[in-house]
């Protein structure tokens, strides 16, 4: 599943990308998605979403941590997404 990633920053490609690892029916994932949509739209950072139930490796690695936020493929947060912390990490 792919989210509505924002456009690249003016003057060049996006500096970062965000991936939300989620699963269907996860209320914390819904809340995390809202924060990610807001922050990435504000900063022009692309994002996507990956359903962990579609990959045995993702399910094994993340089943007890979702939602998980990755920045540039590296785990940033799990369970809850802090808007301030995400915004700060993407602004570097």
Structure overview:
The radius of gyration is 13 Å and the shape is globular. The chain has 92 residues and is of the alpha+beta class. The chain is built from three helices and four strands, in the order E-H-E-H-E-E-H. Strand 1, helix 1 (27-43) and strand 2 (47-51) form a beta-alpha-beta unit. The chain has helices spanning 27-43, 56-62, 83-90, and strands spanning 18-22, 47-51, 68-71, 74-78. It has a four-stranded mixed sheet with strand order 2-1-3-4, with helices on one face. It has a single domain, classed as Glutaredoxin, CATH 3.40.30. The protein starts with 17 loop residues before the first strand and ends with a helix.
**What structural category characterises the helix and strand content?**
alpha+beta
Determine the number of helices (DSSP H or I, runs of at least 4 residues).
Answer: 3
- Percent strand equals 15-25%
Count of all domains: 1
Low-confidence stretches: 1-13
Shape: globular
CATH superfamily membership, which one? Glutaredoxin
Overall mean pLDDT score?
A: 89
Largest sheet: 4 strands, mixed
Task: Give the N-terminus to C-terminus distance in angstroms.
Answer: 27 Å
CATH topology: Glutaredoxin
CATH class: Alpha Beta
Helix content: 25-40%
């Amino acid at each position: 599943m792919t989210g509505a990633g924002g456009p690249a920053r003016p003057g060049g490609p996006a500096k970062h990308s965000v991936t939300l690892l989620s699963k269907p029916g996860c209320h914390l994932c819904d809340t995390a998605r809202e924060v990610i949509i807001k922050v990435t739209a504000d900063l022009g950072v692309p994002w996507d979403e990956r359903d962990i139930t579609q990959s045995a490796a993702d399910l094994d690695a993340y089943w007890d941590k979702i939602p998980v936020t990755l920045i540039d493929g590296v785990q940033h947060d799990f369970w809850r997404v802090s808007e301030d912390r995400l915004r700060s990490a993407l602004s570097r």
